[in-house]
Amino acid sequence: MPQWCTGTVVDRKEWSPGLFTITVATDEVEPFEPGQFLQLGVFRDGHYGDPDALINRPYSVASPHGSQLEFFIVTVPEGELTPRLDQLREGSTLQVSKKAAGSFTLKKAPDAKHLWLVATGTGLAPYIAMLRTTKPWDQFEKIIVVHGVRHAADFAYTQQLKNYEADHPEQFRVVQTLTREDSAVALRGRIPDLLASGALEEAAGCKLSAAESAVYLCGNPAMLDSMEEGLAERQMKKHRSKSPGHIVLERYW
Ligand SMILES: Cc1cc2nc3c(=O)[nH]c(=O)nc-3n(C[C@H](O)[C@H](O)[C@H](O)COP(=O)(O)OP(=O)(O)OC[C@H]3O[C@@H](n4cnc5c(N)ncnc54)[C@H](O)[C@@H]3O)c2cc1C
Ligand SMILES: NC(=O)c1ccc[n+]([C@@H]2O[C@H](COP(=O)([O-])OP(=O)(O)OC[C@H]3O[C@@H](n4cnc5c(N)ncnc54)[C@H](OP(=O)(O)O)[C@@H]3O)[C@@H](O)[C@H]2O)c1
């Protein structure tokens, strides 16, 4: 069982109904790497402080260590915890694990010139943390963020990503994709299909290849599986410490 501390919500931003970012203050979380996750927990009504009544799940931290903790969360309507997290407001408290976990970081990233950070939905969170540090900017010639959502209202952190594009026009590109409506500013289709058709690379202005690319995949497990298949056709495989490859994965469920 994790060791817990109590955090206080100090900010809440709602991107669209059921899609929100909370900022949590606590100084008890140990140093962590961008891309790692913490457990968040809420006690069942009427059982505050009872460890058996704590509902907890892992959440990627969307901020690097040293700033206040940020979490980008979607409410799964039938879910046990997220409807409760959605109710937290400034001043609400929640439980936070003291120690982060996970190897979805840039620490042992595949050796590559180009970094592709591919996400569906809230799978964007770990990349937001990574991009707020100097590491990816120092390490890679090009960084491409691909963010796939259902509706345009589900895009988040767009301003931050567009600012990177303006500040690093040669090095950074964001490609937003939509599956359930058209938009002038996003590609239409699922990410693996857009990879197969060439539309993704065209929008990124960059080829995705085993010779040059490291690919991070985060979010919907079905997207991860389809992307792995598509990338295998390009002779790309999972990156492991004993067997270097190109792909690093974080499965959200
Ligand atoms: C390493 C890791 C990091 C994660 N980081 C984040 C994060 O930063 N933000 C975030 O919103 N979630 C994140 N998740 C998912 C999160 O842990 C919960 O699974 C999710 O919030 C649902 O919790 P729940 O109690 O509301 O639903 P539950 O009662 O646990 O589950 C309901 C069902 O919903 C499905 N489900 C779970 N997550 C999702 C989802 N995001 N979209 C659609 N269906 C889903 C599953 O099939 C699950 O069985 C992460 C998961 C992992 C493993
Ligand atoms: N604003 C919100 O996002 C919001 C708000 C409230 C509640 N919710 C709820 O939150 C849950 C998660 O919704 P979500 O939209 O964040 O996540 P999601 O269902 O994982 O969808 C995110 C993106 O992943 C795509 N996708 C799904 N399967 C894929 C596959 N095999 N390959 C490639 N892409 C794939 C989806 O395309 P498709 O459209 O083709 O499936 C969509 O564009 C749902 O229960 C939803 O009802 C969402």
Please characterize this protein's 3D structure.
A six-stranded antiparallel sheet has the order 4-3-6-1-2-5. Strands 10-9-8-7-11-12 form a six-stranded parallel sheet, sandwiched between helices. Helix 5 (191-197) runs parallel beside helix 7 (221-232). The chain is 20% helix and 32% strand. It has two domains: 4-97, Beta Barrel (Elongation Factor Tu (Ef-tu), domain 3); 114-251, Rossmann fold (3-Layer(aba) Sandwich), CATH 3.40.50.80. The protein is α/β, with parallel strands linked by helices. The longest helix is centred in the C-terminal third of the chain and has 12 residues, at 221-232. The radius of gyration is 18 Å and the shape is globular. NADP nicotinamide-adenine-dinucleotide phosphate binds next to strand 8, helix 5 and helix 7.
Largest sheet: 6 strands, antiparallel
The helix/strand class is: alpha/beta
Q: Write down the overall mean pLDDT.
A: 97
Strand content: 25-35%
Total DSSP E strands: 12
Compute the number of helices. Answer: 7
Write down the overall geometry: globular
User: In what order do the strands lie side by side in the largest sheet?
Assistant: 4-3-6-1-2-5
Number of domains: 2
Order of helices and strands: EEEEEHEEHHEHEEHHEHE
Task: Identify low-pLDDT runs.
Answer: none
Q: Estimate percent helicity.
A: 10-25%
CATH architecture of the largest domain: 3-Layer(aba) Sandwich
Look at the structure and give the CATH class of the largest domain: Alpha Beta
Radius of gyration: 18 Å
* CATH fourth-tier homologous superfamily of the largest domain: Nucleotide-binding domain of ferredoxin-NADP reductase (FNR) module
Separation, N- and C-terminal Cα atoms: 20 Å
CATH topology of the largest domain: Rossmann fold
